[in-house]
Amino acid sequence: MSTNQRLRGSIVSAGLRPADLAERVGVDAKTVERWITKGRLPHRTHRVAVADALSVDEGYIWPEVVDLPVTQSASQAELLAMHPSRASIPHETWAQLMDGAREAIDILVYAGSFLFEQYDFVDVIRRKASQGVRVRILIGDETSGAVALRAEEEGTSGGLQGRIQLHRRYLRDLDGVRGVEVRAHGTTLYNSLFRFDLDLLVNGHAWGAPAGQSPILHLRRVAGGRIWDHYMKSFESVWDIAKTAARNPRFCGP
C-alpha cells in the first residue's frame, strides 16, 4: 500500500509527532508509523480518535471509509427528525434544548428574530453562561452585500437589516458576560445553525422564502457519523472569517 501523506501532513499541521499522536490515541508509536508508511486502515475507534486529535475529517485522512456500511449507518443514525418548518417544532423542544445544554451553545443566523421574540434569548444565554456553558453567536452584518441580497430575495428589502440592528442592540447586554462571544458575519447563509451540546438543528434556506418556512433537520452527533461534523465545520469556518469583522467599531451597536 502507498504512504498516507494526508495523515502525515495532518500530524505535522497539528504540531505533533507520530509518537505524540500514538500517546493521545492510546496505541504504540509503531502502529501509527504503519498507518503512515504502509497505508494501513485503523480500526474505527482509532480512526475517530485520530480525527478528533488532529481536528480533521476522518474521510479526509482515509477517503475509503466514506462508503463503508458502518459510516453510512452512523451518518443515518444522526438524523433524529425532519420538521417541515421551524414553526412545526414544538416550543417545548426548543426550550428543552436550551435548558439542557451543559457544555456549548452555538448559533449561526442573520437575525434569529424568533429567539428574541419567543424565548427571552438574552436572559437564557446569561443564565446558561453562569452555569459554565460556552456560548458563541454569529449574527449578520447588516451592512454586507449578502444580507442585502437575502432581504431582496425574501421580498423584505431593508426589513432584515433593521431586525439585525435591533437584535445586536439586545446582544449588547451580554458584553462582558464570561463565556459568551458574539461576532458579526457577512457570509452567504445557506443554513441557519442552532447547536446545543450534541444536538444540532439545521434550518435550510430556500430562495424567496423566509427561513422560518423552510425545513429543519434535527441531528444528534454519533461517533463515526459525518453529517453533524459537516455542518459544524461550516460553523467553525464562518466563526473564523468573522473574527476581523467583530473588531470593527460599527458592530458595537447603534
Question: How are the SSEs placed, and which strands pair?
Answer:
Blueprint: H1 5-13, H2 18-25, H3 29-37, H4 44-54, H5 58-61, H6 69-77, E1 79-83, H7 91-100, E2 104-108, H8 113-118, H9 121-130, E3 134-140, H10 145-154, H11 159-171, E4 180-185, E5 191-196, E6 199-204, E7 216-220, H12 227-246
Helix pairs in contact: 2-3
Write structural notes for this entry.
Helix content is 47%, strand content 16%. The protein contains twelve helices and seven strands. A seven-stranded mixed sheet has the order 1-7-6-5-2-3-4, with helices on both faces. A hairpin with a 2-residue loop joins strand 5 and strand 6 (199-204).
Poorly predicted runs of 5 or more residues: 244-254
The pLDDT mean sits at 85
Helix share bin = 40-55%
Count the beta strands. Answer: 7
Instruction: Characterize the biggest β-sheet.
Output: 7 strands, mixed
Trace the largest sheet across and list its strands. Answer: 1-7-6-5-2-3-4
Order of helices and strands: HHHHHHEHEHHEHHEEEEH
Structure class = alpha/beta
- Mass-distribution shape: elongated
Distance between the termini: 60 Å
Number of helices in the DSSP assignment: 12
Over the alpha carbons, how many angstroms does the gyration radius reach?
A: 21 Å
Q: In what range is the share of β-strand residues?
A: 15-25%
Quick rundown:
With 254 residues, this protein is of the alpha/beta class. The chain has twelve helices and seven strands. A hairpin with a 2-residue loop joins strand 5 and strand 6.
Summary tags:
254 residues; alpha/beta; seven-stranded mixed beta sheet; 12 helices; 7 strands; elongated
